[in-house]
Every structure is written in C-alpha cells, then in structure tokens.
Amino acid sequence: MTLGILCSGQGGQGPGMLDMLRREPVAQAVLDRAATVMGHDPRALVAGPEAEMQRNALAQPLLCAVQAATWAALRPHLPPLRAVAGYSLGELSAYHVAGALDADELLRLAVRRAKAMDHADPQPGGLLAVRGLDRPKLEAVCRDCGADIAIENGADRFVIGARRTTLTAVERTVVALGGTVTPLPVTVASHTRLMTPAAVEFGPILVASGLQAPPLPVLAGIDGTPVYTRERAVTALTRQMTDTVAWAACLDGLIEMGCTVLLETGPGNALARMAAERHPDLAVRSIADFRSLSGAGAWVERQLG
C-alpha cells in the first residue's frame, strides 16, 4: 500500500486558504521567502480583495507559494511517496513535491508562466466546466463554436477553454443539448490553442531553469504517464499549456502505479472528490478535510496500516 499526492490547480483559492498554516513555523518561513521572490506577500494577497486572488498574474504564483508552504509543513507527517500528479497549474507544484524543483525556482517559473499566458492572447479568455455530454458531442460543439477541450475529468466531465465571447456560445449550445455548465474563476484559456504563444515563450524558460529529473515519478498531465527524465518534464510542462489535460488518465495512472491512498494538498478538495467519484474504493482525502496537517498525516498512516 502506497501514497500518492494530488496537487491542486486554480479555482480553490479563498480567504481561508492559509488558516491551517498559521501555527506552522516552517510554512511561514516558506511564505516569507515567497514574498521576496514574488514581490508580493502571499499572506497579504489572501487577506486582500478576493478578486485579486483570481487574477492570473497573482493566482498562479500565489497557489504555488501556498502549496510549497503546505508541503514543507506536511511532509514530516507522511510516509514515503509513490508518485505525484498535479491538476493544470498544479503540475508545476507536483515537480516541487517530487523534489525536482526547489521552492524559489517553482515560484520564479510560476510568475513567468502566468506572465506568458496573460500575454498570449489580447482578448479575455476563460474556462467552463461542462457535465452531461460525452466527448464526441462536446468535440462537435467545440468545432462549431471555435473552442477547445482543456481538461478531461471523466467520461462526461470536461473543462472547455476559449475566449469569453466564445464560451457564451458554448454555454448556450451545451445547455440546449441537456448538459450543465459552471464558469470557473480563471481568466485565461488554459490548455488551448490560444496559449501557443505562451508555450513558445515558456518552453525555453523551462529548458534554462533549475528543473531536474524528478526523484519520484510525476504523472504527465497530457497523458497520465509517469515522467522520470528532465527532458520529458520540460516537454510535458510545455505541451500542457496548449494540449488537453487528461486528468482522468492521471488518476488511473496513480492506481496503476500502486497508489492505494491519495492526499490532495489543497486549497479545496475538488481533486479528492473527483478521485473518489472515479475510484469509489480508493482511500482519498484533501488536507482541507482536516483541522490540522498532523491530522491529515494520521489519517494517511491509518489507511496504510
């Protein structure tokens, strides 16, 4: 029985996302350092207007900073890991959890990734969660409207990316076909063709970065297969900016690698809920479900026996 870690993506950030870290000195030290690297104190951002936390330029490094701080405090409570997977932006944090990126380099990359994505398309973009339509039907909708499938979460659960004007047309069509939609608090069309200029800019940044071959396997978001080399890590992190994220395949890949317990780093518990829905017999929780990081660690120990 082994443990896998799920690193959350954008969307779960909110005013309480640092509450569990307030009495964790090692986490506060990471946040102190993050304030220097980012040029913004993560704690001040979380205490400020919630709309600021949704701005892509701030949201991406903020989430990576919080996950790095969380991991620094959580790691001593956990047994050895088997593998790590990250959802969308969370794939970058997954390489930190796996030991392939130090916290400073993670934040530098998050800042530059967000900047590249903001500059990729001059028109406002976004993401729309869609449920109730299978992939062939949704692909037809995307072709007709000029949108892309950004993330595949399951057989009838997807995220669509496009310019905001296009997403309005997608929403109307999906609802007419009997599906349901939920706009996501993301301000760029992540994982779509609109991010091609961002991938062209960010790829060389990754090549020149301090990213190392992951000591633990990280599942590539684009296909759910394990990454063991630096070259493949660079390729996977570059391609996921424009290609569909196969999150369902990542969850299946963790099971195939022998993970019997999954723990999500938060904020929120969206990944834990998706994993539980896809694999009902799996032991899976998020740290957001607990009152303390030590409590999360104790739950993992009980599950692993």
TrEMBL record:
Using the record's annotation, list all stretches that form the Malonyl-CoA:ACP transacylase (MAT) domain: 6-303
Q: Which Pfam families match?
A: Acyl_transf_1
Q: Name one GO molecular function term.
A: [acyl-carrier-protein] S-malonyltransferase activity
Gene3D superfamilies, alphabetically? Malonyl-CoA ACP transacylase, ACP-binding, Malonyl-Coenzyme A Acyl Carrier Protein, domain 2
Q: Coiled-coil ranges per the record?
A: none
Task: List the record's Gene Ontology CC terms alphabetically.
Answer: cytosol
Specify the domain of life of the species encoding this protein: Bacteria
**Biological process per Gene Ontology, one example term:** fatty acid biosynthetic process
UniProt cross-references to InterPro entries, sorted A to Z = Ac_transferase_dom_sf, Acyl_transferase_dom, Acyl_Trfase/lysoPLipase, Mal-CoA-ACP_Trans/PKS_FabD, Malonyl_transacylase_ACP-bd
Note whether Protein biosynthesis occurs among the keywords. no
Sorted alphabetically, which keywords does the UniProt record give? Acyltransferase, Transferase
Against PANTHER family, the record matches this protein to: BLL0263 PROTEIN, MALONYL-COA-ACYL CARRIER PROTEIN TRANSACYLASE, MITOCHONDRIAL
Put simply, this protein is called Acyltransferase domain-containing protein
